[in-house]
Amino acid sequence: MLVGIVGKPNVGKSTFYSALTLATAQIASYPFTTLEPNRGVGYVRGPCPHTILNKPCNPHNSVCADGTRFVPIDVIDVAGLVPDAHDGKGLGNKFLDDLRQADAFIHVVDASGGTDFEGNPVGVGTHDPVMDVNFLEREVSFWIHGILAKDFNRLARQAKAAGKKAEKQLQEKLTGLSITESHVVAAIRQSGVDVDTTLWSDEDLMKFCQILQKLSKPMIVAANKADIAPKENLRRLEETGYPVVATSAEFELALRKASKAGLVSYIPGKGGFDIVDRQKLNEAQLGALDKMAAWLEAHGDTGIQRVLEKVVFEVLDMIIVYPVEDETKWIDKQGRVLPDAHLMRRGSNAHNLASKVHTDLGDNFIRAIDGKTHMTVGHDHVLKDGDVVKIVARV
Questions:
Q1: DSSP 104-115
Q2: Domain with 343 in it: what CATH number?
Q3: What does DSSP assign to residue 115?
């Protein structure tokens, strides 16, 4: 799974990315700081089943801390987007190409209204952040439209003559964008266009692309710089129809760095922190921490961890499942307890899990065993969040 961090220049994207991943990214308050995409790993949380087993776990592909499993998510931070990027303005074409494989977007918006369309600093409250949401949506739709529009009419006629389904033809044109045939089918239905693509006007194609954009590249809005944003801006962003989380990337980055340096005790996503040794901090640092503590008390968290978890668990509707070799001890062949945690789409079944663990397991699937109930289940058994499952396959 890949989550793209998107937005116009100078809204705090690189700070957001660094806070989320603790990876190094170039950060400065001028447009196009990010020229090449930054790739890193963030983590989403879920209760670890080892607490039920009453034994410590031995994570292999994830991390466990105090009964909470942290599951990795690939994250990409791309160059800032400006209006008409689909026509090559700014770093537009590169920005869009870098996002081809993203399953969802976190759109980082300057909720303070302190940057214009080009990412240049303006007075707080000067720019309407809702316009940024609208223009990014428009750019991605035009990007998809541009890919499909090339020779569209000719290809539509050829597909019809060959008896090929419209959805198959469209999906083939979008190979490489992580757009599935089911996305295409749903977009045709929801846009109300004719199933015969030879009858489409350019307006029909654009309507289809707008719906496809929302289905195949779902988005959540990170209302960044919320610590200085007018409340009216936050309210209006919530009316865009997208999920919105108020965030302060600067606070989160500062807390994660302070925690790494041993100055504070802080777990990402928690609503507070403890100062380890006040004697090691100067007055300016203590003042900054007091400001962060007040924000956390008022808002619950910095929003950074929450926005990633919201996009994974709500927007993409994923669950965490734990495959094991022994359904009674919950161990693998090496004797490790609950070593792996896999993210699966809600509604996935036992056979889907087998295929995700290894292609051979999927091809040779016989049955599965629920590690919590010890009941044998079939290939179509629907998985639940936190399930522990043994896959039985032909050898």
A1: EEEEEEETT--B
A2: 3.10.20.30
A3: B
